[in-house]
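Example record used in the benchmark description.
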Amino acid sequence: MTEFYPTPTPIAYDHAPLHNPDIPINVAPLPPPALDLPPFNPQEHLCFQPPKQIHTLASLKFPESISATAASQVGITEPFPLFTPAAVKAFRKELFQPHVLRDCAWYPNPETCQLRGMAPKFAKFMYDAWMHPATFAAIDAAAGTELEIVFPYEIGHTNIQMGPRGQGDVMNISLSAEHAVPLKLSDGVEEDDLARPTVYWHHDSYPFVCVVSLSAPTELQTGGETALKRKDGSILKVGSPGEGWAVILQGGLIEHVALRAFGYGERITMVTSFRPRDAKSPDLSVLTTVRPISNLSELYDQWFRYRSQVLKKRCEERVVKGSELVEVMEMKKWCEEQIWWLKRTMEEMVVEE
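Model output (structure tokens):
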């Protein structure tokens, strides 16, 4: 099975991603001030409509050897409405809190800020929104299969394109977090918009992602799409028509890139990672692309718990099935699969000397 699936390689960052250079990553966080946010309510904060178009693995030129073992035939959806403007305002208010920008920000290149690991400790509304059964039902319907969030650290990963002022632009957004702040994103428009993306070409570390736009394109703004490679090498670009709209992508399987926006506006996207709910489905998750931009103690703890929970579920299902007479070679094959699962679990927890 594994030979058909790509193993993500580290993203080609311009330099090692920086946490806030003025604050050590192991600093004890200050108690955050309470935010005056309403509780998540699907009637008020969800506006899901199924995607009108889906690009299947077959349409993206993936061979049957891959699509036959995939958890879903959905490669990527066209954008669909998911969260209301009220929900987006709440997300932005939580994301641009000073202590989030201090403790959860990473800077993989001079023009990109990434926020990670906010939920639930700094972003309860965000956590409740993604964990609500109504949200799961919407994601499952769009993805064509039942999914669950990999683990909390991967809820709400946020990519912010900064302009020439760098971190100063993030601070400007934080001053008016609930509302868009038009920024000078880039000078001019490059003829090759693939040459200098905000996040470079990569496969995701996890099987599925849901990418939600937290900003609306302006009339003075171009670009900012997600581009992906079909298996024949051709490029498909998918843009977002507005805030709260989402796409589902099999990002662990499909190589893709976040394109730079040009002109005046914002490019802010929130990404939550998913895996198949069925413990027997292919799940080739790794930590390759997220390890350089994570608090490793939190990441590894949640990674280990998720891998252990899946193994426990598999063992419980095996015990139930074990009431029937099972052929010896089948049992040995099952054991080998679990050994591989544990080996990958261990190997991904890289300890730096």
